[in-house]
Amino acid sequence: MQIVVVGGGMVGAACALALARTGHQVTIIEAGDSPLESAPTEQWDIRISSVHRANLDWLEMLGVLACIPATKMCNYSSLAVQSIDGQRLEFNASDIALPTLGAMIENLTLQHALWRCLQTESNVTVQTQTTVESIHWAERQLRTVDGASMPFDLVIGADGAQSSVAKLAGIGQRGWDYDMRCLLANVTTEQEIPAATWEVFRQSGPYALLPLTTHQACLIDYAPQGHHPQTENDVKERLQRQFRSHIGDFHLQQWGHFPLRRQRALRYHAQGCAVLVGDAAHSIHPLAGQGVNLGFADAQALVQVLQSASDDTLERAFSEYSQMRVSANQRMMRAMDLIHFGFSSQQLLPRLAIAGGMKILEQVTPLKRKLIELATGY
Ligand SMILES: Cc1cc2nc3c(=O)[nH]c(=O)nc-3n(C[C@H](O)[C@H](O)[C@H](O)COP(=O)(O)OP(=O)(O)OC[C@H]3O[C@@H](n4cnc5c(N)ncnc54)[C@H](O)[C@@H]3O)c2cc1C
């Protein structure tokens, strides 16, 4: 099939690569520059994704992991969540006989690696610094803003939360702002950092650590809108207060804020030839680092249903794709809401329920194992 993927971010690029490997002709339309124009710097950028084990295996099979330098990928083997009143739940890779639970990978590096792999595929064309102007669905012709016109059998919207494909296909979105911001800060530490990621939940929002190297970490601090620090000194002061007891002295390298929004497409396909993946279909609270993981799972499901699809059977393939992904994504979104609202609740009951739930999970091995499997994508 002739497939146009709109958006060459992590999900769009991975989806395009997997589709090209199964023999489709793929064109990527990307609004920004090609990531290959600039090599990732030596320092870690603050946009980092925790990619779970199952998706790492998929990226490895695609040959993408081999293009990621060891300096921009940090495997982790333990994950802990803790409530402010001391309830703790810890998951270890050894609990499910795996060497690691997943890895922290810099977003820019992952995108760069994906595009390097795309470059080697003769059936992939990329058009950068351009966007879609219009799509004639009946004639299956897409027009870009710079006047290029292209025929297609299928258009994949991988163009993020403000998806132009969703709009042009008439797919509505529903969502809300969490009224919170997320502070991300990369630091170098004096103490050694174990290969473990952890998160502590407070009423005002969680704070967390992602390990990057033995002496580098990304610190994450969520705060209600209007309560986040604005200057470098305020950021330092706030992070010191929160993290010093966990990791000792550290030096701030770079930081930034991100707003948090939940959004989902009302359907994942329309017009008989348009389908959404990744944040174009769902954007989720990042507290459990699941956004890109869900997007990669969408891409794998889509590639699977398209394997045996033809023009006549596209609708059936889309229904299958929706069945595979809509409820799985919504379950994860609801779980994130439950955690977010449960911990931030002023009411005693939801907080006690969560504390009780954590205690039960810590003690009931099969339940805990199930949760680890979910966190690793198995
Ligand atoms: C603070 C924060 C931390 C996060 N941490 C994690 C984590 O640890 N683990 C995890 O799994 N997820 C995490 N996420 C979520 C993750 O970053 C997103 O789910 C992921 O980036 C979505 O990828 P995507 O390719 O679907 O969309 P995007 O990353 O939004 O990419 C969309 C691409 O489409 C292009 N584009 C946009 N509009 C157009 C257009 N009209 N035409 C052509 N191209 C267009 C853009 O330039 C971009 O390249 C986090 C998110 C946030 C905010």
TrEMBL record:
One Pfam family this sequence matches: FAD_binding_3
Cofactor(s) annotated in UniProt: FAD
Gene3D superfamilies, A to Z: FAD/NAD(P)-binding domain
Taxonomy, superkingdom: Bacteria
InterPro entries: FAD-bd, FAD/NAD-bd_sf, Ubi_Hdrlase_CS, UbiH/COQ6, UbiH/COQ6_monooxygenase
Domain FAD-binding: from-to ranges: 2-334
Gene Ontology terms describing biological process: ubiquinone biosynthetic process
GO MF, any single term: 3-demethoxyubiquinol 3-hydroxylase activity
Biological pathway: Cofactor biosynthesis; ubiquinone biosynthesis
Keywords: FAD, Flavoprotein, Monooxygenase, Oxidoreductase
Similarity comment: Belongs to the UbiH/COQ6 family.
PANTHER family (UniProt xref): 3-DEMETHOXYUBIQUINOL 3-HYDROXYLASE (PTHR43876:SF10), UBIQUINONE BIOSYNTHESIS MONOOXYGENASE COQ6, MITOCHONDRIAL (PTHR43876)
Protein known as: UbiH/Coq6 family FAD-binding oxidoreductase
Species assigned in the record: Pseudidiomarina aestuarii
